[in-house]
TrEMBL record, chains A, B:
Belongs to the class-II aminoacyl-tRNA synthetase family. It is found in: Cytoplasm. Homodimer. GO terms for cellular component: cytoplasm. It catalyses: tRNA(His) + L-histidine + ATP = L-histidyl-tRNA(His) + AMP + diphosphate + H(+). One of its GO terms (biological process) is histidyl-tRNA aminoacylation. This is Histidine--tRNA ligase. GO terms for molecular function: ATP binding; histidine-tRNA ligase activity. It comes from the Bacteria. PANTHER family: HISTIDINE--TRNA LIGASE, HISTIDYL-TRNA SYNTHETASE. It comes from Adhaeribacter radiodurans.
Length: 488, 488
């Protein structure tokens, strides 16, 4: 057996009990809210066939997937080097094909596996289908602070309904989850892909050559690469400098979510000015532009979302912002889009999502509209650490440690140990008869709140010493009193 | 985007909400017991470096590991075929080395990652360290009924103490977990590697050439390949036919766990007979044999384990069996070993474990004794399905569905929806105004126990119709009465 110093793969982490406790506190809070809103848990395998994943996340995604070596190559009963070498040679004699080497990869997100599940089980599923999924995903990204190669996603999606009630419920869930976690100062940014679509139509009608997705992907990067970076990217994609100027003028408009109409008017005025500014528009072009301006679907739906929130009794409109620079990087969004930012904390968005009209279309099942949201647990964890929001209950496990003085004290302690456990009090008896100081250190480091000291005196009197490890207080109590005091 | 029919990798599964609910019921029961006994959760990454995993599971394990293609080979910014082809050529010009292709694999069990964690964190950990871990593992085994390539293990281990209290607590936990799940008729088989070791010593002193591990691994297969298969395997490994006969004679002895002494005496008598039977033993050999028979460590520890169980007030000795054919396949066990079988159900063991003296030795940290147990959740699931043991509570999520008649009923329903949720009652409003039959089917298939019907009549009177979906009963109630009735 090798005795080299063991290490972890780059970009991966162990979670020790304290961290697992805190992470579970976040997971459980999210789960409770999802369930209260009628979402049910789904789990899919870590591996997916490459044919399912390839081409769904753009070129970058295909490159960053962790691919699994085919079994044929490592499953042979006689894997001598020559045999393996021969296999590789055989592969290389053929025109190069990665499928000879790998046919599976680790899942890259939870959305594509969800779409795959829906398509494969379309006949058994009752639509609308509300599922949540909390599982790790893997990306071979360059690791850096806050970016890992294995991380959890927490997704909730409804598919099979176009009702904007779902969007409203997403806002309610975002608000409830964060508030339950103790995060109070945050902003839910909202936009609609068709608001951005109107902008694109405008640019397109005036001769833009880039696609709408090019436009959305570029706008999405404003926070990362700044306006100048976005300008460069758009010009590279075939937009003119003049168009970018007009676009930026409109993107500088912003407003509260309650005052959608005001913003809509502002956007219309700005679009109108652009229309009038540009020479050489044909009459047809002008008519189309006027029509787009008259019924901008994006704004209509945003107003309906506001109406739902009002009727649901939602009060925290101050936490919502209509942000027309919000684009979201993923190509499949078609309706409302969301992103959540905690204010006054240096941290990217902690949640995001939106509506998609055709997610399952990639697997041959068209016209299944859905909307979903995803929580970034690693970032929420860091925010909660920074703001000191984890309650003590997220960190303790064992409630009582019984010390182990000597053989007779141990025999006396054994039934007491079981009595406490029978009352659902998590209890340990220190398993070895070592120095008391060592046993107390154990309780201390494991954050055990109570230590029960049993020596010959206690055995004689039946009065056991219960020490509160936080206050240092010590009481002499009968076992019945201890059970009563610690009852859960 | 490809539109081929999507599929799952062989040997993997999706878990739909109903199955996840039932699985979580098992996981939560196990977790609660682990925590009550002072175990804390640990999580390790899905990937481990191959240097950590290789050589830890025997030749078969090395072959059945799912290996991950190196990033260098699929992370290139310009992954044109030529470039990739060039990479492969480069690899093949060198003496063949798999590390050029793969340096990581998916974890194969939870024990080796646990040992790796302990060694890497030896200075931060407070020993004895009691951890539990519930995570999936991956094996490229040939899939068949009940055998998957991705499956969960539920492990609890204590390291850093030799106290047999830990073994006793493992028996208590096994008993508590299965009883809590409603499984009542099961047998916890117990043996000790050093009882088997005595048998080996006997055979060795009489000239056996196979190793002790050969012997244990062969005995472990009695259930799978039968006595004849084991005989063949042992003879292949260098044992004589005569030795195998003697061995089988002793292995046919069995007894209740309470009557360890009786069995010990029987084994001693049998060994004595063998000793006397064999001609040509030297005086030295006979002395050694006599010494082994006088203080058989295995039996001493089994008696101590029984003593602990007695003192802990354990009552279910009828569920324990001393089974000297129990060997467990893994090479690292050195002390007590356990295996649990549900009686009257066709199913292999649902749990197993034992003590190991030197698990972390593989990573250069010797002399850390530990003992652990592992639950097989897939098998427990199948047993519970067969015995119909899942409670209804493991399968329902949403409590109330509010029907959606028309626009005005929807507006009326929205604040009620939020009132129910505020009272922690998981509630949904059907998002679309479709036929009532379709909405009822939705409630039915999602096993929602109550449907709240709101039409114009109900809006006018304020008396809402609450339908119990199990009994079919319907009541007209004010919202306050409904809240009271459904309070959780």
């Amino acid at each position: 057996m090798s005795k080299e110093k063991p290490s972890l793969p780059k970009g991966t982490r162990d979670f020790n009990p304290e961290v697992v406790g805190k992470r579970n506190y976040i997971f459980n809070t999210i789960k409770q809210t999802f369930q209260k809103f009628g979402f049910q848990p789904l789990e899919t395998p870590a591996m997916e066939n490459l044919s399912v994943l390839t081409g769904k996340y753009g070129e970058e995604g295909d490159q960053l997937m962790f691919k699994i070596l085919n079994n044929g190559l490592h499953e042979k009963k006689e894997p001598e080097k020559e045999k393996l070498q021969e296999n590789w040679n055989k592969i290389l004699q053929q025109p190069f094909s990665t499928s000879a080497i790998t046919e599976r990869a680790l899942r890259y997100d939870l959305t594509v596996p969800f779409a795959r599940f829906v398509v494969m089980n379309r006949n058994e599923i009752t639509f609308p289908f509300k599922r949540y999924q909390i599982q790790p995903v893997w990306r071979a990204d360059r690791p850096q602070k806050g970016r890992y190669r294995e991380f959890y996603q927490c997704d909730a999606d409804v598919v099979g309904t176009k009702s904007l009630l779902c969007e409203a419920e997403i806002v309610l869930m975002l608000d409830e989850v964060l508030t339950s976690l103790g995060i109070e100062d945050f902003t839910i940014k909202i936009n609609h892909r068709k608001v951005l679509g109107v902008l694109y139509e405008f640019l397109f009608l005036q001769g833009a050559k880039g696609t709408d997705i090019d436009l959305f992907v570029a706008i999405d990067k404003i926070d990362k690469i700044g306006l100048d970076g976005v300008r460069k990217e758009l010009i590279d994609k075939g937009y003119t400098s003049e168009m970018v100027n007009k676009l930026f003028e409109i993107l500088s408009l912003n407003g509260s979510f309650e005052k959608i109409n005001e913003l809509e008017d502002k956007v219309k005025v700005a679009l109108g000015e652009i229309r009038d500014d540009v020479e050489g528009n044909s009459k047809n072009q002008n008519n189309t532009i006027t029509k787009i301006m008259r019924t901008p679907v994006g704004f209509v739906e945003l107003r309906e979302l506001r109406e739902y929130l009002n009727n649901l009794g939602f009060k925290n409109f101050n936490r919502l912002a209509l942000d027309i620079t919000l684009a979201r990087g993923l190509s499949y969004y078609t309706g409302c889009i969301f992103e959540v930012k905690v204010n006054n904390v240096k941290m990217g968005s902690i949640s995001g999502g939106g509506r998609y009209d055709n997610l399952t279309g990639m697997f041959g099942l068209p016209n299944v509209s859905g909307v979903g949201i995803s929580f970034g647990v690693d970032r929420i964890y860091d925010v909660m650490e920074e703001l000191n929001l984890f309650p003590e209950s997220a960190q303790t496990s064992t409630q009582v440690l019984i010390t182990n003085f000597d053989a007779s004290a141990e025999v006396y302690a054994l039934p007491i140990l079981q009595q406490l456990r029978a009352a659902n009090i998590a209890t340990e008896l220190y398993p070895d008869q070592v120095k008391l100081a060592k046993q107390m250190t154990y309780a201390d480091q494991k954050k055990i709140p109570y230590v029960l000291l049993i020596g010959s005196e206690e055995i004689a009197s039946g009065l056991l010493k219960l020490k509160n490890m936080r206050t240092g207080e010590q009481e002499s109590l009968r076992i019945e009193e201890i059970l009563k005091k610690l009852a859960v």
